[in-house]
Specification:
Length: 508
């Protein structure tokens, strides 16, 4: 099948295109169209055969009911029975908009559309193109999200094209959607009404109109044994191809844990993605980093989430790590979708951060022109399971001096270089709980301890790794002694690597 793609300007809707699209739906065909939430795959809701085509195009199980989209309130009475007063009030407040309500179905709604249920889901979208299309199609348009079953819902016409090109008659391209997450689904057949799927219209907003609403417990995670009431919620939804893990904690912990997880994954040769935010993105350096939006305005995150998941798929990423979001307002809907995309895989950030006894390692020598910089560079070349900032500093540095030429010669003969490094004096910025300070000898350690009372993690290198001999001082000696010093430091760095790596494994 050749799928026609028609651009439609929201502000100047071309009614000829809409009439053609409406005609396709009346004739039993399929047209994808924008709504304010996500793109929908439209068909005639009163036509059993059209429903079958919809399921086939999406590759969706046919026991998963479709939402019937209407454009006028009067249409509700034709397809739903026993509509309670509270629903009238909710419709008055939230329609047109991202709220779907479930009622007992009227006779004329075929079981094909409702997935065999005696209830029908109804929604009146606010998007102008959606509204005109519904009217042009006869007033009742069934529309699931216009993605292949199991992929993230489409928030742009290009996403629909990716999934359904060749399988449907037409795509109306109205640009990017406004909200980006599917509508709130509210079961009105029970009292009080129950949220089956969280969306942009939150429990708090609904409660202002109808008093209390319940929340289906299956929304919140895997712990519930009950089958979800919205059949669609039982399928692994919105799933990216990559393994997605949600990292939970406060923002600082999340960033530190994700940095560590990505460091590991990249070292293991995995193509790794990060879902970051405006507020945190500059803390990451490794991996494929994507900005999902601003924590200041979580609507931006809702809007970008599915597109970001699709982008990762397009780039063939193996693993994705995501920060988590507060469970308030639209945050509930964001976390619900993220959690499903992750197949409920969540890990507490503290579990990872707790193992990070140190985050920075500073080697201290007399002048920071030889042993300290050598140790730092040798350690950087080791396979550390944790990402550390590794530096060197000097006890007496009056002005920045270049590396000792003999030290550089030895480093070069071992395939490394200290290049243009210039010495830096030790200062109070090197004194903190999570900084490991390692001196070349006891005198340097005592000098720092004397100056900074709060110098907490300071050891001589040999002491820290359990060796008696201090690092050899080659100063003023021939080149071969510098070579011995290199060997000496190199052995100590082997032991240091082992000790540091034992923390990551949780054995330290
Ligand atoms: O925002 C939206 O709702 C989008 C746009 C296109 O309007 N549509 C959408 O449809 O997300 P779909 O089919 O992808 O998701 C509909 C959800 C499914 O989880 C389905 O199981 C549930 O609503 N649902 C539909 N009819 C139902 C019913 N009678 N009882 C319980 N759940 C129902
Ligand atoms: Mg869907």
């Amino acid at each position: 099948m050749n799928t026609m793609i028609e651009k439609v300007n929201k502000n100047r809707i071309d009614m000829q295109v809409i009439q053609r699209a409406g005609e396709i739906i009346r004739q039993g065909g399929l047209v994808a169209f924008p709504t304010e939430t996500v793109y929908g795959l439209g068909a005639n809701a009163l036509d059993e055969e059209a429903a079958k085509k919809t399921y086939a195009a999406k590759g969706r199980p046919s026991d998963n009911p479709l939402i019937v989209h209407i454009a006028e309130y009067e249409a509700l009475k034709e397809i739903a029975v026993d509509v309670p007063e509270s629903a009238v009030a909710l419709a008055r407040r939230f329609w047109p908009g991202p709220l779907t309500m479930i009622f007992k179905k009227a006779e004329k709604v075929p079981y094909g559309t409702t997935g065999g249920l005696d209830t029908v889901a109804v929604r009146m979208p606010s998007d102008g193109i959606a509204r005109e299309l519904i009217l042009a199609s006869g007033g009742y348009v069934s529309a699931p999200s216009a993605n292949t079953s199991g992929r993230p819902s489409p928030t742009k016409a290009e996403h629909v094209e990716e999934d359904l090109s060749g399988k449907i008659d037409m795509i109306l391209d109205g640009g990017s959607v406004e909200i980006g997450l599917e509508s709130t689904v509210l079961d009105m057949t029970v009292e009080p009404p129950v949220i089956l799927r969280p969306g942009a219209i939150t429990a708090g907003m609904l409660e202002k109109v109808v008093g209390m609403v319940g929340i289906d417990e299956t929304i919140l995670g895997p712990e519930s044994e009950k089958a979800p009431k919205a059949p669609g919620m039982k399928y692994r939804h919105y799933a990216p191809n990559a393994k997605l893990t949600i990292v939970e904690g406060n923002i600082r912990e999340e960033v530190l844990a994700i940095r560590q997880l990505v460091y590991d994954a990249v070292n293991n040769g995995k193509k790794t993605g990060i879902i970051a935010t405006d507020e945190t993105i500059h803390y990451y350096s490794k991996g494929i980093i994507k900005n999902v939006g601003s924590r200041e305005d979580e609507r931006t995150i809702a809007k970008n989430l599915f597109a970001v998941l699709r982008e990762f798929d397009g780039e063939g990423v193996d693993e994705i790590y995501s920060e988590s979001f507060a469970m308030r307002g639209i945050g509930n809907a964001i976390m619900n979708r993220l959690d499903k995309a992750a197949g409920h895989l969540r890990i507490p950030a503290v579990e990872i951060v707790r193992r990070q006894r140190y985050r920075r390692i500073v080697f201290v020598s007399q002048s920071d022109t030889c042993r300290g910089p050598m140790a730092a560079e040798i350690l950087r070349q080791r396979h550390l399971r944790q990402e550390y900032v590794i530096d060197s500093r000097g006890i007496i540095v009056l002005f920045p001096e270049p590396i000792n030429p003999k030290a550089e010669a030895v480093m070069r003969s071992n395939g490394m270089s200290l290049g243009e490094y210039k010495s830096i004096p030790f200062s109070e910025t090197e004194v903190a709980d999570d900084i490991l300070v390692l001196t070349m000898d006891e005198a340097q350690k005592n000098k720092i301890l004397a100056e900074y009372e709060e110098a907490v993690s300071i050891y001589t290198v040999n002491e820290f790794v359990g060796e008696d001999e201090e690092v050899l001082n080659p100063y003023g000696k021939p080149l071969n002694v510098y070579g011995l010093c290199y060997e000496n430091i190199s052995k100590l760095m082997d032991k240091l690597t082992e000790k540091l790596n034992s923390y990551v494994e949780g054995e330290g």
